[in-house]
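Attaching the record inline, Q. Sequence:
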Amino acid sequence: MEKLKENLEIDIENLKFQNDENLEKELLEKYNIKLDSDESVFYKFTCHSKFWLFVEFLSCLIVGIGCCIAIVTETIFYKICCSLLLIYILFSVLPRTIKNFINTGFYITDKKLIAFNGESFLLESLYFKDCGHKRGYYGIDLYENSTFILCVYDTTNGFDNLLALLHKLTSNDIILQFKTNNDKRISIEKTKLKLINN
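Structure, as predicted:
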């Protein structure tokens, strides 16, 4: 892992993350969330454009309607194929798109991740997973235990800073492999963000 840190060119030791009073005020005004006295908010990250998520949702809807029409009118082979595709859309793609639409971004404190809808998740209960190559970007999926929260893509320059902050808060070296200029990412299964010994 030490070699991994060197290759990624993030100067983690010299990164200074400080409490952002503007973000703290924003959390209080927008979501009526008051942080603990020993808690600091460091970062705000926007993951998705609602426009593209709407386009994704609309595409799912169009494909779903097409599948329903094919199930009613086509031969048995097409009915089976369209039924499988419809099941995949309804139980995998659509729920993720809706979750991403609800949680388009989040705030990071030293204890929690707070989604833009006001829902908060303890860092100790978060997991991350390689979400693969999507729309020309690499990224990670975030989960609370087994429940999907949202996808985080490297669509902004702030993605590397987010990874550095998550590493600083959790001491989990695996998260560093997702830096935007790393061509040697290893596909990983769901991994706890904050390791037990942290």
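The helical segments are 2-7, 21-31, 50-73, 76-102, 159-170. Residues 76-102 form the longest helix (27 residues).

More tomorrow.
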